[in-house]
């Protein structure tokens, strides 16, 4: 792949103020009540067609930009528990608080990994953002990734998985060998993956639905629930129609720091939509980023 930059997965999360899950509990209740719509029916129909065809619907969930404890982070943990949905949280190592405490995050549900270094854009103005674009000096890239690993090991110990999530889902392929050489076995960006391994030994597992619209006036807004359902329905259908070897887990992308009430409601509604549906499973990061069969 020339580059993994994806234009519609803009995520300026690191620049967003820490908007946490205010009134989250009330919001979740509302989210559970409102979920009935023709678009949801379309999604459910696709899920049932996959089940009838014997094609498992494999979901996974990634949240980006963790730097500190907050009500939003607590809300994230709460949703993972409620739906028994495993979650991979990508931490910005160079911005993370020394006081970050992940001990409340259930080890069987929530894993952590590295989200770049400091979430700094090095690309020229006007183009897609990237911390690790083509123009970066490989030695600087390696030094930053290594510094991030050191920071995360100090903060998280063995809670950190060897998975690399580049900021803005953008990472130039010329730096992939650095990621592999630093010991990572997984890479995650956005959009249909071009192949199952970015390079040998580096499993590629992407997200496919970003629940936020980053360009909305006044800051990030949730994608409308019906749009999210229809997009997921299309992805479920596409996965069903692919050869088995090309199938990939379907990833939901959230950003807890940039989410306000309606975004929490959307996330909860989407998790509800898949809950208890036969043939649907939520994969752990260990399953999503499994090594190749021996
Ligand atoms: Zn980010």
Account of the 3D structure:
There is one protein chain. The protein has 294 residues and is of the alpha/beta class. It is built from eight helices and twelve strands. Zinc ion binds at residues 11, 13-14, 64-65, 115, 119, 167.
Short description:
This protein has eight helices and twelve strands. It is an alpha/beta fold and about 290 residues long.
Helix content: 25-40%
Average predicted local confidence, pLDDT: 89
Bound molecules: zinc ion
Q: What's the helix-strand series?
A: HHEHEEHEHEEEEEEHEHEH
Largest sheet: 10 strands, mixed
Helix-and-strand structural type: alpha/beta
- At the first level of CATH, the class is Alpha Beta
Q: What low-confidence regions span 5 or more consecutive residues with pLDDT below 50?
A: 1-30
Please tell me the total number of domains. Answer: 1
Shape: globular
CATH topology call: TIM Barrel
CATH hierarchy: architecture: Alpha-Beta Barrel
CATH H-level superfamily: Glycoside hydrolase/deacetylase
Number of helices: 8
Radius of gyration: 18 Å
* Distance from first to last alpha carbon: 25 Å
